[in-house]
Amino acid sequence: MSPQLSTPSKVAFFRDIRTLKWALQILALLAVFALFYWLYGNYQENVAKSSIQTDLRFLDNPANFTIPGNDLDQSQPVRDAFVEGFLNTLRVAFIGIALATILGTLIGIARLSKNFMVRTLGTVYVELVRNLPLLLLLTFMNLAVVLQAFPRIENAWLPLDLFVVSNRGIAIPWFIGSPAQLGIGILSAALLAFVVAKIRIRQADKTGKQDRAWLVGIATFVVLVVLIWLLFGYGWELPYVDGRGTTGGLRLDPSFFALVASLVIYTSSHIAEIVRGSILAVSRGQGEAADAIALSGSQKMRLIILPQAFRIAMPALGNQYLNLIKNSSLGATISYFELTQIAQITVGNGSPAVPAFSLTLLVYLAISLVTSLVVNFFNRRLALVER
Amino acid sequence: MLDSVIAAGSVRCGTRDALPGFAVLNDAGEHVGFDSDFCRVIAAAVLGDANAVEMIDLETADRFTALQSGAIDVLVRNTTWTATRDGSEGANFLQPTFYDGQGMMVTSDSGYSKISAMDGAIICVAKGTTTEGNAALESSRLGLDWEIRSFDETDLILEAFLAGQCDGWSSDVSQLTGLRSAYPNGSEALTILPEVFSKEPLAPAVLDGDTAWAQAVNWAILATIQAEEFGITSANVDSIRDTTTDVGMLRFLGADVPGSDGAAVLDPNLSLPTDFAYQVVKQVGNYGEIFARHLTPLGLDRGLNSLWNDGGILYAPPYR
After folding, report:
1. Nearest chain A Cα to B130, which residue?
2. In the prediction, which pLDDT does B167 show?
3. The CA-based dihedral angle spanning residues A114, A118, A119, A121, taken in that order and rounded to the nearest 10 degrees
4. A49: which chain B residues are within 8 Å (Cβ-Cβ)?
5. Which residues of B touch A76 (CB under 8 A)?
6. For residue range A242-269, what is the model confidence (pLDDT) as tens digits?
7. A275-295 pLDDT tens trace
8. What are B186-220's pLDDT values in tens digits?
9. Mean pLDDT across the stretch B43-63?
10. In this structure, how many other beta carbons lie within 10 angstroms of the beta carbon of residue B53?
């Protein structure tokens, strides 16, 4: 007779540990929902009592304010002002992330340099900047650097006669034509350059010769941009001082400069530490192997160490990018017209506070989530494929 | 609200701490100024004690949220009465304490002598106020293409103005006068241009839907105007109450009014003590006194803010 397995007697469902666990979870969830429902009900009640708007109708009202460096008319709806604020936030985010990554990587590498001067300067930079509150850095950048160190418009600096630098902004030479033309030109040049570089890489893979593919790609890009420029006859436009302002070229708002500079300085100090840590985390043998096959110092860094280091750094870098985007809201304190500033102004002009700030909140959330998605995409692309 | 104020024993008054003439902190850390005194007027009327005020400093952009959420009982923070604020901010505006208008201040050496000459100028204003909208409207009306920069605080505008980042500083004339008097380079370095391009009735506000409280605040302020019209000041209020035979003044001060069936005190059922006007004048003063105390030293004229029988528009309904 084979041994019989004793089947457990059926437990009543209300004493089943699994049912109880589920029930507890659902109860907790219900409690949370009830709390939010109660808060929302309170809000509704208070709002109804004092006749405050709660919907997004205010977006159709006239904005009643203008944005520096923008031809938004004060009679355009609040919606348009929000779009401009959103674009200004994106401008700071894009430029800030690009510059902070470059500067941070250079300083991260400098911190590991064998040269005493370079190494010490890197350490001083990181320790100094990382330990300052960003708001303070920004206020300093605005009040001390832009307002005081930059000259008044009457005696503006004119480096090379190409730029006009004053505490009313930095004007740079700019092309004449529509932004769409510029975009299409640059995009097609970039696409062609990318193809050229890819072909070179395939060639190099086949022959095993030194590649320099990306250098060739960049050169192609520059040549193409110049070619398109000449072909379609776009012209430069140089800025010049005109009364109490500047005319011509592209004028960068002084608050834009202060905000980007502070964000880049601050975030790059954090990125430098991430890069340094990631380089140290690359197995020592990799560097020794590179030395063994007689790669030069820069080749070793560029071809062996950094690609592996960035794989490690990617998730932490993503966090820094998100921080930079969110910190750009501090621009509101120095009169840079990004999302938060627009929200504050429009609320001061009579838009209802709760819906206006909720909308702003959701836009930031959307920007951050999209950034996360992009970072995660690259993270998956870069990650070691393990079986 | 009235009951909760009486129960708490103090009025929570939304104000600010850095506007010369209207509300600034003195060396002892007390709020001094025109607006601060109207907070005290309300406390004197409702609670009989002008010092029963809790001054709560607010940022410009936060003031209506503070009112809506019940963090303050009344907002006296040179706030312009506009239709949108009345309608969608849940605020109930009462008797204006000051009739103001928006103007422009420039440095005296800038060469600007009128607003229409300021083509393409950078104009700096405070954020979250009606100032931005008025400036934008004036710019497009005159076709001046102004670049309007908005700052959180007057300190930041001052820094930008000193550094030459702004050509003009636009705000209510009363504010500009106050800021000019405190300018680090001396008040002669600044000029306020003669044009005024908006109506800015600065009025106290309470939360919508509380009639009793609104009435109480309103009549406290009207009492200062009526007192000036009667010629009652903090110095002579006692002697007038004891000696006058004027029925209007006796009613106003909550004194016994002789009648056919004996003496009686007028109680108009405003949910205020019957002697509220006496307390207001005795403890704080009449409108003219408050103005002379805080705004005359800045160089502001009475102008529109004179009594109706003196060329201004201050007019209190009869107290009977």
Report:
1. A349
2. 92
3. 170
4. 208-209
5. none
6. 777 788 778 888 899 999 999 999 999 9
7. 999 999 998 899 899 999 988
8. 888 999 998 898 898 999 999 998 999 999 999 99
9. 92
10. 24
pLDDT of residue B316: 95
* Mean confidence (pLDDT) of chain B: 91
Residue A50 resides in a domain: no
> Top-level CATH class of B2-98+201-221?
alpha beta
Find where tokens 């003669």 sit.
B194
pLDDT band at A3 (very low <50, low <70, confident <90, very high): low
User: CATH no. for residue A277?
Assistant: 1.10.3720.10
Fold equal for B2-98+201-221 and B102-198? yes
B225 with B315: CB under 8 angstroms?
yes
CB spacing of A147 vs B165 below 8 angstroms? yes
Rounded CA gap, B67 and B213, in Å?
A: 13
Range of the domain at A319: 78-148+255-339+363-382
Query: Residue B85: CB partners within 8 Å, gap ≥ 6?
Result: A350, B64, B79, B91, B93, B205
Collapse the DSSP code of B286 into the 3-class scheme (helix H, G, I; strand E, B; otherwise coil) and give the result: coil
| Mutation for testing the B interface, residue in A43, A47, A59, A74 having most B CBs under 10 Å | A74
How far apart CA B239 and CA B242 sit, in angstroms, is 5
- Most B CBs within 10 Å: which of A39, A50, A88, as the mutation test of the B interface? A50
Total count of domains within chain A: 1
pTM, two decimal places: 0.76
Facing residue for A347 by CB, picked from B128, B148, B150: B128
Domain assignments of chain B as residue spans, ordered by start: 2-98+201-221, 102-198
Asked, for residue A223, whether it belongs to a domain, the answer is no
Q: Give the residue among B177, B160, B100, B96 at the shortest CA–CA distance from B126.
A: B160
**pLDDT (tens digit per residue) in B250-282:** 999 999 888 777 788 888 988 899 999 999 999
**Within 13 Å, how many C-alpha atoms sit on residue A238's CB side?**
9
Mutate to test the interface with B, among A73, A253, A330, A349 (most CBs of B within 10 A): A349
The beta strands (E) that lie in chain B are given as: 11-15, 18-19, 23-25, 31-32, 53-57, 74-75, 91-93, 98-100, 102-107, 122-126, 147-151, 168-172, 190-192, 200-202, 205-207
Average pLDDT over residues A352-360: 89
Q: In angstroms, rounded to a whole number, what is the distance separating the alpha carbons of residues A272 and B294? A: 56
CA neighbor of A88 nearest in space, from A73, A61, A62, A68: A68
Pairing of strands B53-57, B74-75: unpaired
| Domain B102-198 CATH assignment equals 3.40.190.10 | yes
